[in-house]
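Notebook, p. 212. Picked up where the previous page left off. The plan for this session was modest: take the two constructs that came back from the sequencing core last week, fold each one, and keep the raw output in the notebook itself so nobody has to go hunting through shared drives later. Recording the first one now, exactly as returned: residue sequence, then the structure token string.
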Amino acid sequence: MTLPPETPEVVPLREPAGGVPEVVDTPAGLAKVVAALAGGTGPVAADCERASGYRYGQSTFLVQLRREGAGTALLDPVPLPDLSAVGAALGDVEWVLHAASQDLPGLHEHGLFPAKVFDTELAARLLGLERVGLAAVVADTLGLGLAKEHSAVDWSTRPLPVDWLRYAALDVEVLVDVRDVLADRLADAGKDAWAAQEFEAVRLAPPPAPRVDPWRRVSGTHLLRDRRKLAVVRALWEARDASARARDIAPGRVLPDRAIVAAAQALPRTAGQLVTIGEFAGKGQRRRAAYWQRAVDQAMALPETALPSLRGPSSDGPPQPRLWADRDPQAAHRLGAAREVVAALSEQHHVPVENVLQPDALRRLCWAPPASVTADSVSEFLRGRGARAWQLDLTAGPLAAALTSSPS
């Protein structure tokens, strides 16, 4: 009988080596941090904390940095919005982040533009780790247990509790050590060049374009098949967004999505009718009932020509794949064959499907392939949609063959 391998014991990481540092919130304190970081050696570990779910937007409320020889610094970007001196002091030093795409926009807001990035989450994905959260990757690479109990707290709180600061400091305590282990594994797997291309793509990624009709993301809107009701959703979303922005509160705390959809379904004619809806019966919503009812009234008064479409805004992309079989059976066949190719490459190289090739690029290729399908034309098509060189090397030839295959 073969026994399963033992799970390595994880040693809890409870305290930063240098203790919990004080938060730096003055120009004089920042100058000391800048000098210390400039005198350090090796990469700099970085992390950011936001107040998602509490505040409007994705502002950064704490920046954590750690470098060998400099120790850990916790910077408060509220009184210190310009942190560009940190970037100037570090020059072309590599920044180590976990899930860099989440933190880089916040760093950019404060004048920090890393010249080079190592993303430990992306590295873990390329290596085929089953779990890629920071705690899981720290446990896998170093055998250390990293608590994550404060990951969703309100980081705009001032002063920040010591326990939260300890958590924040520990997030960068061993990040460079994790980076070193993952870098060795990437080299051993022959994936270090892949990783370098991925890291650079994340570093240089432009900010996302503003979403068209963001109100359509209200949960439950897809169940409403009436243009007037959609107009109520839009009006309440806009009223909620304006109030949330003015009060600097997360929109979902101002008015939940379920309340918006409930009002759209009920179509109340007065504030009195509105507060009979369960989602508006609370004290806070009753107090603002007139405000919400005005939004409903505005939507109810719109002429038919001003009502939103049931189908949403037009898109330059293909339709939902579930519709392909009816609209274009050949495209549906191409998509099925192409997905099999990507799935096989994913299994062969132990890389998640979505990292082998961006799903949107694959769908666009299958819906409207080049006039002449060859490995070169497929490669050119995918390159124009952000595919990296390593992805093209893996996928272009097999995808070209799949796109030209005949249905069985």
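Okay, moving on. Second construct, recorded in the same format:
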Amino acid sequence: MQLRRRGAGTGLVDPVPLPDLSVIQGAVADVEWVLHAANQDLPCLAEIGLVPGRIFDTELAARLAGLPRVGLGAVVESLLGFSLQKGHSAADWSTRPLPEEWLVYAALDVEVLVDLRDALAAILEEQGKSEWARQEFEAILAAGPPAPKADPWRRTSGVHGLRSRRQLGMLRSLWEARDELARRRDIAPGRVLPDSAMVSAVQADPANEGALLELPVFRGRANRRLVATWFGAIARGRALPEAELPPHSRTGDGPPPVNRWADRDPAAATRLQVARAGLAELSEKHAVPVENVLSPDLVRRIMWSPPEARDAAGVGAALRAGGAREWQVELTVAVLVDAVGRA
């Protein structure tokens, strides 16, 4: 974990031997924390006892400011003229001791973060978006840690190449075996067995351990030792009763896929088309990505099931209930009222 504060320099703290860093909380709790893509960092920080009271998210600020690229390196280069050192972002950071050059790389990652925050804050102030950013940052903190996703195995890369419920059952069983092993070892699941290997194994449907070992990834020494684990998982999925097989897709509480709207509800399809066009105009006018102007999922939900009162009050209430910030409500409500009126 990297910390930098003006006048104090940069510190690197290893949470592996020090899993509870709440002692640091008292020293920094009353100041604004500057993070890049805070949603990625906050859950990890909370695990080691660090929870900010205020944040400034430089990635989100760059989006609101209309910068064409919002990665940390690109924003630093664009606004400050520095090029961040590259080369170790994909390294295995569970390695101990960490090589000296990796530590330098980690320290440089926060070297100019406070300066970057000031540069972005000045741009937002000039554009009249400081209040937008404040509301966005508060919403991030208020949201808390993300809820566990239902059926996380469905996020396996390549899952759409599996056609039958039986194949999905085998994949789920493999995913669960990999997840259990990764948790025991405390390493990323993809380092235990890549997603592509699981999908390939399910598609090959090996009859025995020998057939599984013929597949490319499973020929390696590590997976040869685990072949009984992987084949056992496949066999359990293959043996599941029909009633216990997962459905082709998970039933959600939202509207159907957009490509079905024209057939199922042509009026809703028209509403969505009008809303998207209006939001695209707002996005261009204010130089803010359309997904930051308003959540696409919330737009779909309101267009599919508009509020009973299809005026500014009714649509505004629906937006707030769906988590839209006040600046988003004020900016978009007229566009959505126009859209929901296209019945």
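Notes on construct two before I forget. The chain has a mean pLDDT of 93.
Flagging for discussion at group meeting.
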